[in-house]
C-alpha cells in the first residue's frame, strides 16, 4: 500500500513535476508489485466520447473511488455511473464504466474503462482524479501493450501487428496488420521453432545414445532432411520481393524525366493539391517533393524530382544529384516525357528512357502533354510503345486530365503485383527486424550442414542458435532491447 507520507513529503517541495512524482512512486514500489497505470486511450482533442483506461491491481479500488460505489459493476458489462473526484466529491461527468477483472482482460491484469464525454475539462478532471489515487500513475507509451505481452496475452509479432493496425492508413495495410495481430505470422515462426526443437532433440539423443543400439537407424539423415526443408521454407519466405515491408511502409514511386516534361504537374494532379511549383521555366524543381497517397488501397510515397539535365547551376546540379539518388531507391519509376518531344520510334523512346532509369527498375512510361499532339501522331506513338522491350506506357495530359485513369490502372496493377493480396498465401514478414533474424537463422541452418559430419556438438549448437533467432522475432527469447525497439513506436494509452 502507498503510505500517504511520500505525497506529504513531495507536497512540501513545490512545484513538483509529474516526472519527479513518477520517479519517487517507482522507487517506492516494492519489487514485484506493479503500479496501476492509467491513460486516455482514445485520441486527443475534443470528441464525443473519450475512453480512459486503467490496468493494475488498484484498478478495482480506483473504480470504486471514482464511482463512489462499493460494488463493482458486473465483469465486462457496461454500467452507467456518476464519476466523482474523490478528493473534492465533485461530480465530473456521468459516463459508462466497464470492469475487466484479470486475467480476462487486454493486459491480463485488473483493468477498467471509463467512457466519458470527450471535452478537455472532463478528460483532464478524470485523469487528475486518477493521478491522486494511491498506487496509480500515468502510463508510458505502449505500456498497456507491453503488459499484455509480459502476461502472455500477445506474442511479439501480434504486438507489432497491433501497432501497425493503429497506424494503418489504407485497406491493404489494415488487412495485413490484422492478419499479423491475429497471430498467423507468429504461428508460422512458432511452427518453425518447434521443428527446430524436434531436430535438436534428435541430434542430442544421437550424441547421448548413439553408442547404445536402441536408437533408430537414420536419425541424423532425418534431421538433415528436416533442416533442409526448413531452410527452403525460410528462404522462400525471405524472397518475397519485400512485399510485406513495402505494404507496411509505403511503396516508393518516383516521378523522373527531363526538365519541363510536366513532372511537377503530374505530382499535383495525383495528389490533388499544388504540392510542387509548376512553371514554364526549365529547372524549376530542385528539392525532392514528397506526398503520401492511397492508390487502390495501397500506400504510396510519391516523389517529384528535379528535371534530369547537364547544368552549370550549382543548386540545380544538387537537385539533379538528389533526383538520381532517389531513383536508385525507387520501387517504381514514373518516367515522364513530353509526347511532342519524342519521335514515334522505339529506338528513340528506349534512348530517352535509358537516360532516366539507372537500372531495370519497375517503370511506367508516361507520355505527357498529349493535348499538344496532332491526332495522327497518337496511334503511331502508342504503337511504338508496344514494340521492343519498353515498359507499359500511357498517353497523358496534365492539362486536360486525359489518360489519368489509364495511368492509375497501370500503377494499380504494378502495386498489386508488388504488395500482393495481404490475405492470400502465407503471411508476409513485415519488418526489417524479421528479415534480419530470419537471415541469421538461415546462416545457422547452413552451418549445421557444415558441422554435422565434423562435430555434432557444434552442429547442435547451430540449431540452438537458429531457434534463438526465431525466438527473437516472436519474443520467446526475452531481451529488453528487442522489447524497447518494438514498444518505442506505440502511443500512450495503447
Ligand atoms: N499543354 C500542356 N502543358 C503542360 C502539361 N503538363 C505540364 N504542362 C506545362 O509544362 C510546363 C512545365 O511543367 P512542370 O510541371 O513545371 O514540369 P517539370 O517537369 O516539373 O519541370 P522541371 O521541374 O523544371 O523539371 C508548365 O508550363 C506546365 O503548365 C500538359 O499536359 N499539357
Ligand atoms: K518547369
Ligand atoms: Mg518540376
From TrEMBL:
Essential cofactor(s): K(+)
Main location (coarse class): mitochondrion
Gene Ontology, cellular component aspect: mitochondrion
Record localization: Mitochondrion
Ranges for domain TrmE-type G: 250-416
Classification via HAMAP family: GTPase_MnmE
Record-stated family: Belongs to the TRAFAC class TrmE-Era-EngA-EngB-Septin-like GTPase superfamily. TrmE GTPase family.
Molecular function via GO: GTP binding; GTPase activity
Keywords: GTP-binding, Hydrolase, Mitochondrion, Nucleotide-binding, Transit peptide, tRNA processing
Pfam families on file: MMR_HSR1, MnmE_helical, TrmE_N
Keyword Phosphoprotein belongs to the record: no
Free-text function comment from the UniProt entry: GTPase component of the GTPBP3-MTO1 complex that catalyzes the 5-taurinomethyluridine (taum(5)U) modification at the 34th wobble position (U34) of mitochondrial tRNAs (mt-tRNAs), which plays a role in mt-tRNA decoding and mitochondrial translation. Taum(5)U formation on mammalian mt-tRNA requires the presence of both GTPBP3-mediated GTPase activity and MTO1 catalytic activity.
Segments crossing the lipid bilayer: none
Xref: CDD domains: trmE (cd04164), TrmE_N (cd14858)
Source organism superkingdom: Eukaryota
Catalytic activity: GTP + H2O = GDP + phosphate + H(+)
Record's protein name: 5-taurinomethyluridine-[tRNA] synthase subunit GTPB3, mitochondrial
A single BP term in Gene Ontology: tRNA wobble uridine modification
Amino acid at each position: 500500500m502507498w503510505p500517504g507520507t511520500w505525497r506529504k513529503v513531495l507536497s512540501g517541495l513545490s512545484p513538483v513535476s509529474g516526472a519527479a512524482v513518477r520517479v519517487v512512486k517507482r522507487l517506492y514500489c516494492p519489487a514485484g508489485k506493479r503500479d496501476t497505470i492509467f491513460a486516455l486511450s482514445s485520441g486527443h482533442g475534443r470528441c464525443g466520447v473519450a475512453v480512459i483506461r486503467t490496468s493494475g491491481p488498484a484498478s478495482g479500488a480506483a473504480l470504486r473511488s471514482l464511482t463512489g460505489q462499493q460494488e463493482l459493476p458486473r465483469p465486462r458489462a457496461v454500467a452507467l455511473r456518476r464519476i466523482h473526484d474523490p478528493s473534492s466529491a465533485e461530480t465530473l461527468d456521468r459516463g459508462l464504466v466497464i470492469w475487466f477483472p484479470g486475467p480476462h482482460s487486454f493486459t491480463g491484469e485488473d483493468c477498467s474503462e471509463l467512457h466519458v464525454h470527450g471535452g478537455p475539462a472532463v478528460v483532464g478532471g478524470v485523469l487528475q482524479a486518477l493521478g491522486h489515487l494511491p498506487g496509480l500513475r500515468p502510463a508510458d507509451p505502449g505500456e498497456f501493450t507491453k503488459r499484455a505481452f509480459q502476461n502472455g496475452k500477445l506474442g511479439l509479432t501480434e504486438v507489432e501487428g497491433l501497432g501497425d493496425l493503429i497506424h494503418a492508413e489504407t485497406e491493404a495495410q489494415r488487412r495485413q496488420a490484422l492478419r499479423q495481430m491475429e497471430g498467423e505470422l507468429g504461428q508460422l515462426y512458432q511452427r518453425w521453432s518447434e521443428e527446430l526443437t524436434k531436430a535438436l532433440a534428435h541430434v542430442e539423443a544421437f550424441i547421448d545414445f548413439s553408442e547404445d543400439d536402441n536408437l533408430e537407424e537414420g536419425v541424423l539423415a532425418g534431421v538433415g532432411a528436416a533442416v533442409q526443408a526448413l531452410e527452403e521454407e525460410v528462404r522462400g519466405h525471405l524472397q518475397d520481393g519485400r512485399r510485406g515491408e513495402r505494404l507496411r511502409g509505403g511503396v516508393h514511386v518516383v516521378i523522373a524525366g527531363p526538365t519541363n516534361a510536366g513532372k511537377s504537374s503530374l505530382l499535383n494532379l495525383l495528389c490533388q493539391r499544388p504540392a510542387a511549383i509548376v512553371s514554364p521555366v526549365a529547372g524549376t524543381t530542385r528539392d525532392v517533393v514528397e506526398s503520401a497517397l492511397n492508390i487502390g488501397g495501397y500506400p504510396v510515397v510519391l516523389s517529384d524530382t528535379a528535371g534530369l539535365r547537364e547544368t552549370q547551376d550549382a543548386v540545380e546540379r544538387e537537385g539533379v544529384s538528389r533526383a538520381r539518388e532517389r531513383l536508385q531507391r525507387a520501387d517504381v519509376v514514373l518516367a515522364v516525357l513530353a509526347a511532342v518531344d519524342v519521335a514515334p520510334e522505339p529506338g528513340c523512346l528506349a534512348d530517352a528512357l535509358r537516360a532516366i532509369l539507372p537500372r531495370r527498375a519497375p517503370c511506367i512510361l508516361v507520355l505527357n502533354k498529349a493535348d499538344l499532339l496532332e491526332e495522327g501522331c497518337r496511334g503511331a506513338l502508342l504503337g511504338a510503345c508496344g514494340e521492343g522491350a519498353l515498359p507499359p506506357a500511357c498517353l497523358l495530359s496534365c492539362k486536360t486530365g486525359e489518360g489519368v485513369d489509364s495511368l492509375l490502372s497501370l500503377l494499380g496493377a504494378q502495386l498489386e503485383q508488388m504488395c500482393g493480396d495481404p490475405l492470400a498465401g502465407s503471411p508476409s514478414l513485415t519488418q526489417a527486424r524479421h528479415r534480419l533474424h530470419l537471415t541469421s537463422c538461415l546462416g545457422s541452418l547452413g552451418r549445421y550442414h557444415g558441422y554435422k559430419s565434423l562435430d555434432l556438438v557444434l552442429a547442435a549448437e547451430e540449431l540452438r542458435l537458429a531457434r534463438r533467432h526465431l525466438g527473437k522475432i516472436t519474443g520467446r527469447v526475452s531481451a529488453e532491447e528487442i522489447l524497447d525497439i518494438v514498444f518505442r513506436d506505440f502511443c500512450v494509452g495503447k
